[in-house]
Amino acid sequence: MSIVEVKNLRKIYRNGTKALKGVSFEVEEGEVFGFLGPNGAGKTTTIKILTTLIKPSGGTARVCGFNVVGEAYRVRENIGVVFQEPALDSRLTGRENLDFHARLYGISRAEREERIEELLKMIDLEKDADKLVKYYSGGMKRRLEIARGLMHFPKVLFLDEPTLGLDVQTRRKIWEYIEKVREKEGVTIFLTTHYMEEAEKMCDRIAIIDHGRILEIGELEELLSEVGKFAVEFKGNANMEGVKKVNGRNVIEVKTEREIVKVVKELMKFNIESLNIRRSSLEDVFIKLTGRAIRDEKASGWGRR
User: What confidence category does residue 294 fall into, taking pLDDT thresholds of 50, 70 and 90?
Assistant: First the structure.
């Protein structure tokens, strides 16, 4: 059953920027749906429309059966949101931030207290619950924001680049908490990211978006079928068919182990400095679809998110 339905969604900003150019997809109830793309691809514009913060220029979007334009209030009742930019009150404690959010949703005192304790335990912030948020680390703030988004028992939790700016170790911890949230709460998760590893690890299905258009949607294995199963990378000059230049590296896509042997034997005929064999990744798919690596766009920071 689809809990998010998007059809031909378009968004043109006042300055003429076409952020979305006919985006269509569905999110199934209970899944972790990944929205993968570089800065400027249209990820944040999409999530802002789905969470009723901005209106589309065309097309339709429904969340939990409600239209994001005509039934915005009902949509908000059923969703939780964690945006890229922190939105916590640093002058309050972690517990007070959660309590304040619950009051906005009209949750009774007894239910608030029970829910706060339940969520603090889930995200391992019980011991730090009564500290001011201004003393929290980046990872602690992110965990608290996830808990706040869950306070009112939402059916869909939107996470917009939830690990942006965090170190690798903290990012992996956040992934663990998100997985725990999914298992215990049964909530549908809509995750935007430009981290390949995050999309590969967390998501049941992934949509790749670039320049306001969906390029491909599917499970990881379906997306990986777009490229060879393995990649042979090497430094040096080799006049061979199928060699691609990727971030200054020479890459040959290979489908089977037997083909690896053939490619390596052929490479040995040339002046090769180094050679590496690895399994193909989501980044290989992205490069094939867009012609560039996602980190190149991340570095340049072009356009609108």
Answer: low
Residue 237: count other Cβ atoms within 10 Å of its Cβ.
12
Nearest alpha carbon to residue 289 among 219, 207, 234: 207
Which residues are paired to 113 by β-bridges?
A: none
2-223 CATH pick, 3.30.70.360, 3.40.640.10, 3.40.50.300, 1.10.3720.10: 3.40.50.300
For residue 194, which of 300, 297, 51, 278 has the smallest C-alpha distance?
A: 297
Q: Using alpha carbons, select from 158, 95, 164 the residue that is nearest to residue 123.
A: 95
**Of 86, 33, 81, 65, whose CA–CA distance to 209 is shortest?**
33
Mean pLDDT confidence for 229-235: 87
Q: How far apart are CA 194 and CA 208, in angstroms?
A: 10
DSSP designation for 135: G
Give the helix ranges, DSSP H, for 124-187: 138-150, 168-185
Per-residue pLDDT reduced to its tens digit, 235-247 = 888 888 888 877 6
Q: How many residues does the chain have?
A: 305
Element housing 114 (H / E): helix 109-122
5-33 b/e (C-beta count within 10 Å ≥ 16 → b): bbeebbbeeeeeebbbbebebebeeebbb
